[in-house]
Amino acid sequence: MKIIIIPNNTAMWGRHYCLAKTLAEQGHEIHYMRWELPYNITFKELLRHLATSLIPKTYAFEAFTIHKVSRLPYFWPVVNGWLFKYQAKKLFKELDADIIITESFTNETEVPKSLPFIYDLADDYAAPAEVYGSPIYKLAFKVLGIKKIMRRQTQNALAVTAVSSTLFDYAKQYNDNTHLIPNGVDSDIIKEVKKDASTLPKNPNSMIYVTGLGQWSRSIETLQAVTDLRKDFPNLELTIVGEGAEENNIRTFIAEHNAENYLHFPGVIRDRKKLFQTINQHAIGINISDKNKWRDAAHPIKVLEYSALAKKVVSTDLKEVVALGYKNIFTFSDTNGKDALKDAMRQALSYNAASREYEAISSHVLIKYNWNLLIDQLLSLIPEKEIKGARK
User: Fold this and answer.
1) Fewer CB atoms near the end CB (10 Å): N or C, the chain?
2) Closest by CA position to 21, among listed 193, 211, 362, 273
3) Mean pLDDT (10-residue bins), the chain, 392 residues
4) CATH architecture of residue range(s) 187-368
5) Same fold? 2-184+371-386, 187-368
6) pTM score
7) Helices 219-229 & 340-350 angle (0-180, nearest 10)
8) What is the SS3 assignment for 311?
């Protein structure tokens, strides 16, 4: 099939990227609709965005064709919304596409009701403003109509795929054709990495935290907890992998504590195989972002990846993490006091299980959460009458 993907932001990572990559590997023709926003608020970036935002561009990226669409610079909801809908209709017709899979959630990137689309609810898009937003941030979310667009696209979609039980319950109110399709893991790459003995951990007290380094990541709290625990576990070390607003704070903490020998910050690792090799070199995976309405609506893709690599996991007690019920996961709640994170880390460090216990969990994850299996479930939701030729 010819499929148009509309992500929830302009970054090429996360759920939409995994879906697109797997669809391409299955032989489908994937086209991305993307746009520009000045995420790095620097004078140079603002000028570049001003000069290029209106200029459309089509180019190849990996196995995809990217269609960077025109939009007025910054935010112009009414005009940019009209431009986006016009370009979506035009692209759909030019490609003779079969279906659109969209994560979009603003009135600047709404899919026209007249086009056949699946709405992939990968997140509670309205929640960040409620949880973390300043008054200006909340105003921006209101101007962009996020709550209204989430509801309207849920109602207009041929089908809705929800990543978590929380989002499933939300979508089911507005669309009977709603299905729970969680995140997955790159089973083939992980299996390959697991066979490479050179990537196995040499230190049983090594931890790794792969995350987006936003204000919810608790990165400094994590660094401090590891530093404190080294009194009881002298060979404890931590690697943080990611990028975001907390990068400078992490580097500053490491430098001020002279901790380069046990706190490692390589930045972001985009190559999936290299990322999994790096994870596999550690004994414990960390997934400890704040527990709140936003994070509870998500699905624990990193917990799944750590588990698929047969690692112990320390995690916030997010709804979907607790629901997994895996014995390799040590959860904590902030309601249990300021030392709850350190207590969970201590439990994970002290727990010694037979390797077959972790391998059984790994095998289960690799089968149940295989992206190919999840993609097959998603494609089965497309009504045959909506497909213009059932290309396979």
Assistant:
1) C
2) 273
3) 93 89 96 84 81 95 97 91 97 97 96 97 93 88 96 98 97 98 95 95 96 89 97 97 93 97 95 96 94 92 96 96 95 91 96 85 97 95 65 38
4) 3-Layer(aba) Sandwich (3.40)
5) yes
6) 0.90
7) 50
8) coil
